[in-house]
Amino acid sequence: MRASDILSLAKATYKEWSDDKASRLAAAMAYYTVLSLAPLLIVIILIVGQVLGEQAAQNQIVSQLSGLVGEQAAEFIQQIVLNASRPEGGIVGTVIGSATLIFGALGLFSALQSTLNTIWEVEPEPGRGIVSTILRYAFLLLIVGVTGLLVLALLLTSSVIAGFTGMLAEVLPFGGVVVWGVNIIVSLLIATLLFALLFKFVPMAKVAWRDVWLGAAVTAVLFVIGQFALSIYLGRGNITSTYGAFGSLVALLLWVYYSAQILFFGAEFTQVYANRYGSRVRAEEEAVPVAEGPATPPEHLEGPEAGEAETHERAQRREGGAEAAAPREGAAVPERTRGGLSPVPAPIVVVLAAVVAVLQAWRARQTS
């Protein structure tokens, strides 16, 4: 790929990122993340705790968060998790608390799917049945579990590397630098795997693995660089002193907001690269394109010219998508929404809440 191709790709990515109003999407994600943070962390702690022990898992996660959002914000998160993990009121309170956990954990990934659908320009097909919806949410629960396993892998790797820090510092003249470099590489690999899974399976679109891996790797590099910059900003800033009691919450919101923008920029890069140089993004069987229209640029154009033609074509589809996709006279007009999932069906939440309540009761009896 030539330098002009890379520059054109970067410009097209920024344009798509700006056209999709990524900053507004990131603000919405920050809101959903704060609401879903305690349920999601409890699920992750339950998964990681099976290997490290619950208290050790909680301490490790808080330690990792301290390096990202600051010590006070991490303590704020820890207190939220402690309060949420102590349901009161007997079996009724346990069921309600469990339903809240499940709804919250699903809510974040549902919001993420809605955003990635917007970036990939697809939406759920109207009139999907309850079985399809249940299967989709079950799959999102699986993604939550996989996320917990990846967090476990990251924590275990960080612990192992930290154990070798002192040993290498004594043996090698630059042992600390070597350990730091290995830690960065491992973090990049795990982050790449996580982003690849998100880009491949969360949006309702078909993307080839070769396009996903490249986009995930670029996103991981941008994310690690962004986290380093954010840790400096949040660590040396006066956010806590400026906002007082709300400082920890503001620091958390800022971290999620800017992290989400980096994630969405990487998703836009993946989408632009796949449509320009890769296999092209297609809607799944249970999804439809947001706007109808020709999906490929002229065949005689290559490289930046093809990308510019495609970007112009996408802009035309956005401006005239309603006319292009207008139904014939007399045809039924289905109600369509842009991206996302319908609200979590109540039966799913109730059944899963009952299961979790039984597991929590069994666990409490085992520990008593």
What's this entry about, in short?
This protein is mainly α and 368 residues long. Helices cover 77% and strands 3% of the residues.
Describe, in plain words, how this protein is organized in 3D.
The protein contains twelve helices and four strands, in the order αααααβααβαααββαα. The strands form two sheets. The protein has a two-stranded antiparallel ribbon. A two-stranded antiparallel sheet has the order 2-3. By secondary structure, the protein is mostly helical. Residues 292-304 and 315-351 have low confidence and may be disordered. α6 (130-171) runs antiparallel to α7 (175-201), α7 (175-201) packs across α8 and α8 packs antiparallel against α10 (247-276). It has one domain.
User: In one word, what is the shape?
Assistant: globular
The biggest sheet amounts to: 2 strands, antiparallel
Helix content: over 70%
Number of domains: 1
Strand and helix layout:
Layout: H1 3-19, H2 22-52, H3 54-69, H4 71-84, H5 90-120, E1 122-124, H6 130-171, H7 175-201, E2 205-206, H8 209-236, H9 239-243, H10 247-276, E3 282-283, E4 287-289, H11 303-324, H12 346-367
Antiparallel strand pairs: 1-4, 2-3
Helix pairs in contact: 1-10, 1-11, 2-3, 2-4, 2-5, 2-6, 2-10, 3-4, 4-10, 5-6, 5-10, 5-12, 6-7, 7-8, 8-10
